[in-house]
Design brief:
313 residues, Rossmann fold, 2 domains, five-stranded parallel beta sheet, 10 helices, 45% helix, elongated
Protein backbone atom coordinates (compact mmCIF):
# COMPACT_ATOMS: atom_id res chain seq x y z
CA UNK A 1 0.00 0.00 0.00
CA UNK A 2 2.85 2.33 0.91
CA UNK A 3 4.55 1.69 -2.42
CA UNK A 4 1.31 2.27 -4.30
CA UNK A 5 0.61 5.54 -2.46
CA UNK A 6 4.19 6.66 -3.16
CA UNK A 7 3.74 5.86 -6.87
CA UNK A 8 0.46 7.82 -7.08
CA UNK A 9 1.94 10.86 -5.36
CA UNK A 10 5.07 10.86 -7.49
CA UNK A 11 3.08 10.30 -10.70
CA UNK A 12 0.76 13.20 -9.90
CA UNK A 13 3.73 15.44 -9.22
CA UNK A 14 5.37 14.43 -12.48
CA UNK A 15 2.14 14.96 -14.42
CA UNK A 16 1.66 18.44 -13.01
CA UNK A 17 5.26 19.29 -13.86
CA UNK A 18 4.86 18.05 -17.44
CA UNK A 19 1.56 19.87 -17.85
CA UNK A 20 2.79 23.18 -16.48
CA UNK A 21 4.42 24.50 -19.70
CA UNK A 22 1.22 23.85 -21.63
CA UNK A 23 -0.93 25.61 -19.04
CA UNK A 24 1.46 28.53 -18.82
CA UNK A 25 1.86 28.65 -22.61
CA UNK A 26 5.65 28.57 -22.33
CA UNK A 27 7.52 28.09 -25.61
CA UNK A 28 9.74 24.98 -25.62
CA UNK A 29 13.45 25.67 -25.75
CA UNK A 30 14.83 25.75 -29.32
CA UNK A 31 16.81 22.78 -30.60
CA UNK A 32 20.26 23.87 -31.69
CA UNK A 33 21.57 22.21 -34.85
CA UNK A 34 25.03 22.79 -36.29
CA UNK A 35 25.00 23.55 -40.03
CA UNK A 36 28.57 22.86 -41.11
CA UNK A 37 29.80 23.33 -44.69
CA UNK A 38 32.83 24.64 -46.60
CA UNK A 39 31.52 28.12 -47.39
CA UNK A 40 35.00 29.55 -48.04
CA UNK A 41 37.95 28.09 -49.94
CA UNK A 42 38.02 25.88 -53.02
CA UNK A 43 34.64 24.25 -52.32
CA UNK A 44 32.82 27.46 -51.37
CA UNK A 45 30.21 27.45 -54.16
CA UNK A 46 28.94 23.94 -53.37
CA UNK A 47 29.22 24.52 -49.64
CA UNK A 48 27.16 27.69 -49.87
CA UNK A 49 24.47 25.80 -51.78
CA UNK A 50 24.40 23.11 -49.10
CA UNK A 51 24.09 25.71 -46.36
CA UNK A 52 21.29 27.49 -48.19
CA UNK A 53 19.41 24.22 -48.65
CA UNK A 54 19.73 23.34 -44.96
CA UNK A 55 18.51 26.79 -43.89
CA UNK A 56 15.53 26.60 -46.26
CA UNK A 57 14.57 23.23 -44.76
CA UNK A 58 14.88 24.59 -41.21
CA UNK A 59 12.75 27.60 -42.14
CA UNK A 60 10.06 25.33 -43.59
CA UNK A 61 9.99 23.20 -40.43
CA UNK A 62 9.75 26.23 -38.16
CA UNK A 63 7.02 27.82 -40.28
CA UNK A 64 5.05 24.58 -40.08
CA UNK A 65 5.03 24.70 -36.29
CA UNK A 66 8.42 23.37 -35.32
CA UNK A 67 9.16 19.87 -34.03
CA UNK A 68 5.73 18.48 -33.11
CA UNK A 69 7.10 15.71 -30.86
CA UNK A 70 8.85 18.37 -28.76
CA UNK A 71 5.79 20.57 -28.34
CA UNK A 72 6.56 22.76 -31.34
CA UNK A 73 10.17 23.50 -30.48
CA UNK A 74 11.86 25.54 -33.17
CA UNK A 75 15.18 24.62 -34.76
CA UNK A 76 17.97 27.12 -34.24
CA UNK A 77 20.78 26.87 -36.80
CA UNK A 78 24.34 27.48 -35.63
CA UNK A 79 26.42 28.14 -38.73
CA UNK A 80 29.98 26.85 -39.11
CA UNK A 81 32.56 27.05 -41.91
CA UNK A 82 34.82 24.08 -42.69
CA UNK A 83 36.94 26.34 -44.92
CA UNK A 84 37.29 23.46 -47.45
CA UNK A 85 39.72 21.71 -45.06
CA UNK A 86 39.16 18.56 -42.94
CA UNK A 87 41.09 19.97 -39.97
CA UNK A 88 39.03 23.15 -39.97
CA UNK A 89 35.83 21.11 -40.15
CA UNK A 90 36.86 19.01 -37.14
CA UNK A 91 37.70 22.16 -35.19
CA UNK A 92 34.26 23.57 -35.96
CA UNK A 93 32.64 20.42 -34.55
CA UNK A 94 34.46 21.09 -31.27
CA UNK A 95 33.02 24.63 -31.18
CA UNK A 96 29.52 23.42 -32.06
CA UNK A 97 29.62 20.83 -29.31
CA UNK A 98 30.66 23.49 -26.78
CA UNK A 99 27.78 25.64 -28.01
CA UNK A 100 25.35 22.87 -27.08
CA UNK A 101 24.08 21.64 -30.44
CA UNK A 102 21.95 18.51 -30.48
CA UNK A 103 23.21 17.40 -33.90
CA UNK A 104 25.40 18.44 -36.84
CA UNK A 105 24.37 18.49 -40.51
CA UNK A 106 27.08 18.59 -43.19
CA UNK A 107 29.77 18.74 -44.40
CA UNK A 108 29.53 18.20 -48.19
CA UNK A 109 32.99 16.85 -49.18
CA UNK A 110 33.94 13.27 -48.28
CA UNK A 111 37.32 14.16 -46.79
CA UNK A 112 35.73 16.80 -44.58
CA UNK A 113 32.89 14.47 -43.55
CA UNK A 114 35.40 11.77 -42.62
CA UNK A 115 37.02 14.20 -40.16
CA UNK A 116 33.85 15.85 -38.82
CA UNK A 117 32.01 12.58 -38.14
CA UNK A 118 35.05 11.29 -36.24
CA UNK A 119 35.22 14.50 -34.21
CA UNK A 120 31.50 14.30 -33.41
CA UNK A 121 31.83 10.65 -32.36
CA UNK A 122 33.98 11.69 -29.38
CA UNK A 123 30.87 13.26 -27.87
CA UNK A 124 28.34 10.80 -29.31
CA UNK A 125 26.98 13.83 -31.15
CA UNK A 126 24.65 12.84 -34.01
CA UNK A 127 26.12 13.81 -37.38
CA UNK A 128 23.95 13.68 -40.48
CA UNK A 129 26.08 13.60 -43.64
CA UNK A 130 24.30 15.46 -46.42
CA UNK A 131 26.50 14.69 -49.44
CA UNK A 132 29.83 12.96 -48.67
CA UNK A 133 29.70 9.81 -50.83
CA UNK A 134 32.82 7.94 -49.66
CA UNK A 135 31.62 4.66 -48.19
CA UNK A 136 34.29 4.76 -45.48
CA UNK A 137 32.29 7.52 -43.77
CA UNK A 138 29.49 5.14 -42.76
CA UNK A 139 31.47 1.89 -42.60
CA UNK A 140 33.61 2.60 -39.53
CA UNK A 141 31.02 1.52 -37.01
CA UNK A 142 30.35 5.05 -35.71
CA UNK A 143 26.96 4.97 -33.99
CA UNK A 144 26.53 8.73 -34.31
CA UNK A 145 26.86 8.90 -38.12
CA UNK A 146 24.01 8.87 -40.63
CA UNK A 147 23.83 9.75 -44.33
CA UNK A 148 20.99 11.00 -46.54
CA UNK A 149 21.93 9.15 -49.74
CA UNK A 150 23.90 6.19 -51.13
CA UNK A 151 27.67 6.05 -51.33
CA UNK A 152 29.86 6.00 -54.41
CA UNK A 153 29.90 2.18 -54.66
CA UNK A 154 26.12 2.02 -55.14
CA UNK A 155 26.17 5.02 -57.48
CA UNK A 156 29.06 3.67 -59.57
CA UNK A 157 27.41 0.24 -59.87
CA UNK A 158 24.20 1.80 -61.18
CA UNK A 159 26.17 4.13 -63.46
CA UNK A 160 27.89 1.24 -65.20
CA UNK A 161 24.67 -0.70 -65.71
CA UNK A 162 22.98 2.37 -67.19
CA UNK A 163 25.96 3.19 -69.39
CA UNK A 164 25.87 -0.28 -70.91
CA UNK A 165 22.12 0.07 -71.57
CA UNK A 166 22.50 3.52 -73.14
CA UNK A 167 25.34 2.33 -75.33
CA UNK A 168 23.33 -0.69 -76.50
CA UNK A 169 20.34 1.50 -77.38
CA UNK A 170 22.67 3.66 -79.50
CA UNK A 171 23.97 0.53 -81.33
CA UNK A 172 27.17 0.36 -79.22
CA UNK A 173 29.21 3.21 -80.71
CA UNK A 174 31.35 3.61 -77.55
CA UNK A 175 34.06 1.17 -76.52
CA UNK A 176 36.77 3.24 -74.81
CA UNK A 177 36.69 5.40 -71.69
CA UNK A 178 38.95 8.00 -70.09
CA UNK A 179 38.44 8.95 -66.42
CA UNK A 180 39.55 12.33 -65.06
CA UNK A 181 39.17 12.82 -61.32
CA UNK A 182 40.09 15.10 -58.47
CA UNK A 183 42.71 13.82 -56.02
CA UNK A 184 40.76 13.51 -52.78
CA UNK A 185 38.72 10.66 -51.31
CA UNK A 186 35.62 11.31 -53.43
CA UNK A 187 37.31 11.54 -56.83
CA UNK A 188 39.92 8.85 -56.25
CA UNK A 189 37.46 6.38 -54.76
CA UNK A 190 34.94 6.87 -57.57
CA UNK A 191 37.63 6.59 -60.27
CA UNK A 192 39.10 3.42 -58.76
CA UNK A 193 35.70 1.73 -58.66
CA UNK A 194 34.94 2.63 -62.26
CA UNK A 195 38.37 1.66 -63.60
CA UNK A 196 38.16 -1.72 -61.93
CA UNK A 197 34.62 -2.60 -63.00
CA UNK A 198 34.07 -0.99 -66.43
CA UNK A 199 35.94 -3.70 -68.41
CA UNK A 200 33.36 -6.21 -67.16
CA UNK A 201 30.69 -4.12 -68.88
CA UNK A 202 32.53 -4.13 -72.20
CA UNK A 203 34.44 -0.83 -71.95
CA UNK A 204 38.20 -0.41 -72.20
CA UNK A 205 39.58 2.16 -69.76
CA UNK A 206 42.29 3.85 -71.82
CA UNK A 207 43.62 6.10 -69.07
CA UNK A 208 42.88 7.46 -65.60
CA UNK A 209 44.18 10.97 -64.84
CA UNK A 210 44.23 12.57 -61.41
CA UNK A 211 44.34 16.33 -60.90
CA UNK A 212 44.91 18.56 -57.90
CA UNK A 213 42.04 20.26 -56.16
CA UNK A 214 41.91 23.14 -56.89
CA UNK A 215 43.26 23.15 -60.48
CA UNK A 216 43.28 26.29 -62.56
CA UNK A 217 44.63 24.97 -65.88
CA UNK A 218 43.43 21.87 -67.76
CA UNK A 219 45.26 22.50 -71.05
CA UNK A 220 47.77 19.68 -70.63
CA UNK A 221 45.13 17.20 -69.51
CA UNK A 222 42.91 18.07 -72.47
CA UNK A 223 45.87 17.74 -74.85
CA UNK A 224 46.39 14.26 -73.45
CA UNK A 225 42.70 13.53 -73.93
CA UNK A 226 43.01 14.59 -77.56
CA UNK A 227 45.89 12.14 -78.03
CA UNK A 228 44.09 9.24 -76.32
CA UNK A 229 40.82 10.05 -78.12
CA UNK A 230 38.39 8.15 -75.86
CA UNK A 231 34.80 7.55 -76.92
CA UNK A 232 33.53 8.56 -73.47
CA UNK A 233 34.92 10.93 -70.86
CA UNK A 234 33.95 10.25 -67.24
CA UNK A 235 34.78 13.17 -64.91
CA UNK A 236 34.65 12.87 -61.13
CA UNK A 237 35.45 16.28 -59.67
CA UNK A 238 33.96 19.31 -57.96
CA UNK A 239 32.14 22.21 -59.59
CA UNK A 240 34.98 24.62 -60.41
CA UNK A 241 37.26 21.98 -61.91
CA UNK A 242 34.45 20.26 -63.77
CA UNK A 243 33.32 23.50 -65.40
CA UNK A 244 36.88 24.50 -66.31
CA UNK A 245 37.64 21.05 -67.74
CA UNK A 246 34.72 21.01 -70.17
CA UNK A 247 35.25 24.64 -71.15
CA UNK A 248 38.88 23.84 -71.96
CA UNK A 249 37.68 20.89 -74.03
CA UNK A 250 35.37 23.23 -75.91
CA UNK A 251 38.21 25.69 -76.55
CA UNK A 252 40.48 22.94 -77.86
CA UNK A 253 37.63 21.37 -79.86
CA UNK A 254 37.90 18.02 -78.11
CA UNK A 255 34.51 16.35 -78.57
CA UNK A 256 34.11 12.75 -77.35
CA UNK A 257 30.97 10.83 -78.22
CA UNK A 258 29.67 11.54 -74.72
CA UNK A 259 30.58 12.96 -71.33
CA UNK A 260 29.16 10.60 -68.70
CA UNK A 261 29.30 12.27 -65.32
CA UNK A 262 29.26 10.04 -62.25
CA UNK A 263 28.68 12.37 -59.30
CA UNK A 264 30.46 15.14 -61.23
CA UNK A 265 30.14 18.55 -59.66
CA UNK A 266 28.67 20.68 -62.46
CA UNK A 267 26.69 18.43 -64.78
CA UNK A 268 23.44 18.82 -62.81
CA UNK A 269 24.01 22.45 -61.81
CA UNK A 270 21.58 25.04 -63.19
CA UNK A 271 24.37 27.56 -62.86
CA UNK A 272 26.62 25.55 -65.18
CA UNK A 273 23.89 25.04 -67.79
CA UNK A 274 22.88 28.69 -67.59
CA UNK A 275 26.40 30.17 -67.81
CA UNK A 276 27.95 27.66 -70.23
CA UNK A 277 25.11 26.19 -72.33
CA UNK A 278 27.36 25.18 -75.22
CA UNK A 279 29.87 23.45 -72.95
CA UNK A 280 27.02 21.61 -71.23
CA UNK A 281 25.98 19.82 -74.43
CA UNK A 282 26.45 16.03 -74.75
CA UNK A 283 26.46 15.49 -70.98
CA UNK A 284 24.83 12.56 -69.22
CA UNK A 285 24.66 12.67 -65.45
CA UNK A 286 24.08 10.03 -62.79
CA UNK A 287 23.29 11.42 -59.35
CA UNK A 288 21.04 10.04 -56.57
CA UNK A 289 18.01 12.29 -56.24
CA UNK A 290 15.28 12.52 -53.63
CA UNK A 291 11.97 12.45 -55.48
CA UNK A 292 9.13 14.48 -53.94
CA UNK A 293 6.01 12.59 -53.01
CA UNK A 294 2.84 13.32 -54.94
CA UNK A 295 2.22 15.68 -57.87
CA UNK A 296 4.15 18.90 -58.28
CA UNK A 297 1.47 21.32 -57.09
CA UNK A 298 1.61 25.02 -56.19
CA UNK A 299 3.70 24.26 -53.12
CA UNK A 300 6.39 22.61 -55.22
CA UNK A 301 6.44 25.53 -57.64
CA UNK A 302 6.76 27.99 -54.77
CA UNK A 303 9.63 25.94 -53.33
CA UNK A 304 11.35 26.02 -56.71
CA UNK A 305 11.01 29.80 -56.99
CA UNK A 306 12.31 30.22 -53.46
CA UNK A 307 15.31 27.97 -54.17
CA UNK A 308 16.13 29.80 -57.38
CA UNK A 309 16.05 33.13 -55.56
CA UNK A 310 18.14 31.98 -52.60
CA UNK A 311 20.68 30.06 -54.67
CA UNK A 312 20.77 32.70 -57.41
CA UNK A 313 20.08 30.14 -60.13
Amino acid sequence: MSNRREFVVQSAAAASTLAFPLVAGAQPAPVKVGVLHPVTGALAYSGQQCRAGALMAIEDINKAGGIKSLGGARIEALLADAQSQPQAGAAEVEKLNEAGVSAVVGAFASTICLATTQAAAKYNLPHIVDVGVADQIVQRGLKNTFRFGPGYKAVADLAMVNLKVLNAIAKSPARTVMIIHEESLFGTGTANLLARELPGFGFEVKEVIKHANPTRDFNNIVLRMKAVNPDILIPANYYNEYALLVRTMQQQKVVPKAIYSVLGGAASSYKFVKEFPDAAERHHRLQPLVQPQGPAGPGAQEARRSAEAVLQL
